[in-house]
Automatic annotation (TrEMBL), chain A:
Its EC number is 2.3.1.46. The record marks 339 as: Important for acyl-CoA specificity. Pathway: Amino-acid biosynthesis; L-methionine biosynthesis via de novo pathway; O-succinyl-L-homoserine from L-homoserine: step 1/1. The lineage of its organism: Bacteria, Pseudomonadati, Pseudomonadota, Gammaproteobacteria, SAR86 cluster. InterPro entries: AB_hydrolase_1, AB_hydrolase_fold, HAT_MetX-like. Substrate binds at residues 227, 371. Transfers a succinyl group from succinyl-CoA to L-homoserine, forming succinyl-L-homoserine. PANTHER family: HOMOSERINE O-ACETYLTRANSFERASE (PTHR32268:SF11). Its main location: cytoplasm. This is Homoserine O-succinyltransferase.
Length: 400, 201
């Protein structure tokens, strides 16, 4: 059935699990004695192993970045818009490696895994993981795969933060850092939203102090609420107006006139039911998410975001953190992203310039808010594609 | 084909030096300097199509509006800062020229010389703002909001204590000649300045 997949898709992909026995020391001082990482790869690794690109995922994504996990699957990986033959991250040129980060809930060791020491779920006992812990685990994966240096490390949002950490902690192990819709550290507003999400989870009666799996339940309401709040921050006001203002546009041919206030059933209920399409959409997104995502993982991921600040080791001066970086940088932002707006990316660029690094930066006009980094926006795709084509040309030139 | 002013400029760029190109366009100058002088170059540009061309040719390009200033650049962080055919389109050209020489040890500025006899004749005879192949815009839609002449720029440099290392003018075919040297403001179509604030030069 694989011939039924689109021609620019990587097609059917099967994840692989790598087991690591060497304990992973963590930033917190704790360590994980042994762990699994689940990985997907697309495209062929060249004989010199120089054409590998690492994809770092964001808050709620996983290793399944492109293609399909089964023949009857209709939904491709989360970054299928960018990864595939002939796409911006071109699998005809590159060998793309995508993993589920430690602490995740899609196959890598995380809170929903069994703790070998107790024989029970890790749950709340799973240690808090930071971005630098992830990157260390990714270094070990890279060693396992026999890759000495990434042609590029690429990521958006929390993934972009891992990209920055790579350039700071392992400068000799990547040629290019592509950091999309990220920030050098979270703002108070960012942390505030994360805390609302965490509190909604931990205050759910089914949370059981994180041991919900032992109680054979999960904090569905809390996770739903967390996702609903999160989802609002991923979209822009204009994106919501457009998304939920369509029916009126059909009538009056003016897409944003009703500010996206489409009604679900055509009239107000004068009760506390779901009246507007946007409400129904958020409920649907929250519900779907709560069924597929582990609440403890959500807590961990948001903490990793909150704690990310590579300048802490350098008296708060991020430019000093970049001093040893040896790669070239490409930083991208989106105009209506209010979670990590363009100014945050420009902070990164300014510190890179201060450190004397080679950097390109573009600010893409896009209505879709933070989510834009996942979408096939022409200027975004063209720019990423052009940049990575030069990356590939460099490695071909180096080989000859 | 290389833009006329660019060929002269490249003579003033040391191999391996750090170059910042303000309003780098499609990146052709940086591309040339990368290939021939192995400079460490970065260009600033606001036009999306131009930025794409820079990325296509592998040039470091930063999307940045020059009118919002250059405070994100450290003092003395570049050897040469270029401003080619962009001065006249800036909202505060005087401030930017000073910024150039804060960031770079040396600066290179090129601009269309509004004091050229053709502009003078056009204005004098027709009584209207000059429109030509070189300055193709009408007054109301031109991006060029601060035209100046060679004499005007000389005066600005004097006022700001900027040392002019070399001043040269060329015509559109980038021919220089003895008579252009004699009457630069009258005959030069493009003015090219190599400037610095360093007293030791």
């Amino acid at each position: 059935m694989s011939d039924s997949f689109p021609t620019d898709s990587v097609g059917l992909v099967e994840p692989q699990v790598y087991h690591f026995d060497e304990p992973l020391p963590l930033r917190s001082g704790k360590s994980i004695p042994a762990y699994d990482l689940i990985v997907e790869t697309y495209g062929t690794l060249n004989p010199d192993k120089t054409n590998a690109i690492l994809i770092c995922h964001a808050l709620s994504s996983d290793h399944h970045a492109a293609g399909f996990n089964s023949a009857d699957n209709t939904k491709p990986g989360w970054w299928d818009a960018c990864i595939g033959p002939g796409k911006a991250i071109d699998t005809n040129l590159f060998h793309v490696v995508s993993l589920n980060n430690l602490g995740g809930c899609s196959g890598s060791t995380g809170p929903a895994s069994i703790n070998p020491l107790t024989g029970k779920y890790y749950g709340p006992d799973f240690p808090v993981i930071t971005v630098r812990d992830w990157v260390l685990s990714q270094v070990r994966l890279m060693d396992r795969l026999g890759i000495a240096k990434w042609a590029a490390v690429v990521g958006g949002s929390l993934g972009g933060m891992q990209v920055l950490r790579w350039s700071i902690s392992y400068p000799e192990r990547l040629d290019h850092a592509v950091c999309i819709a990220a920030a050098p550290k979270l703002s108070a507003q960012n942390i505030a939203f994360n805390e609302v999400a965490r509190h909604s989870i931990t205050s759910d009666v089914n949370f059981h102090k994180g041991r919900y799996l032992e109680h054979d339940t999960y904090p569905k309401q809390g996770l739903m609420l967390a996702r609903m709040v999160g989802h609002i921050t991923y979209l822009s006001d204009s994106a919501m107006r457009a998304k939920f203002g369509k029916s009126l546009s059909d009538l009056e041919q003016n897409s944003t006139e009703n500010f996206g206030r489409d009604l679900r059933s055509g009239k107000l209920s004068f009760g506390f039911n779901i009246d507007f399409q946007v409400e129904s959409y958020l409920h649907y997104q929250g519900e779907r998410f709560s069924e597929n995502f582990d609440a403890n993982t959500y807590l961990l991921m948001t903490k990793a975001l909150d704690y990310f600040d590579p300048s802490v080791d350098y008296e708060g001066d991020l430019s000093k953190a970049f001093e040893k970086s040896d790669c070239k940088f490409f930083v991208l932002s989106f105009s209506t992203d209010w979670r990590f707006p363009p100014e945050r990316s420009r902070e990164i660029v300014t510190d890179l310039l201060k450190a004397g690094k080679q950097v390109s930066y573009i600010e893409i006009e896009a209505d879709q808010g933070h989510d834009a980094f996942l979408l096939a926006i022409p200027r975004y795709i063209d720019a990423l594609s052009a940049y990575l084509k030069k990356v590939h040309k460099e490695l071909v030139d180096d080989a000859s | 084909m290389m833009r006329p002013d660019l060929e002269i400029i490249q003579q003033w760029i040391d191999p391996g030096s750090k170059v910042l190109d303000l309003g780098c366009g499609d990146g052709s100058l940086l591309n040339y300097l990368n290939a021939n002088k192995e400079v460490r170059g970065i260009g600033l540009e606001i036009d999306a199509d131009n930025i794409q061309r820079c990325l296509d040719s592998g040039i470091n390009v930063i999307e940045q509006n020059l009118d919002n200033g250059l405070s994100n650049f450290q003092s003395g962080s570049f050897d040469t800062v270029l401003l080619t055919q962009t001065l006249q389109a800036l909202s505060k050209p005087d401030v930017l020229v000073e910024e150039m020489l804060r960031i770079g040890k040396k600066g290179i500025v090129t601009f269309p010389n509004f004091g050229n006899w053709k502009s003078r004749l056009y204005l004098a005879s027709k009584g209207r703002m000059p429109v030509s192949k070189f300055m193709p815009h009408s007054w109301y839609n031109t991006p060029n909001i601060h035209f100046c002449t060679v004499k005007d720029f000389d005066a600005l440099c004097k006022e700001k204590n900027i040392k002019i290392l070399t001043r040269t003018v060329v015509d559109l075919e980038h021919q220089g000649s003895w008579y252009m040297k004699a009457w630069p403001n009258l005959l030069g179509e493009i003015a090219i300045y190599h400037i610095t604030k360093e007293t030791a030069c």
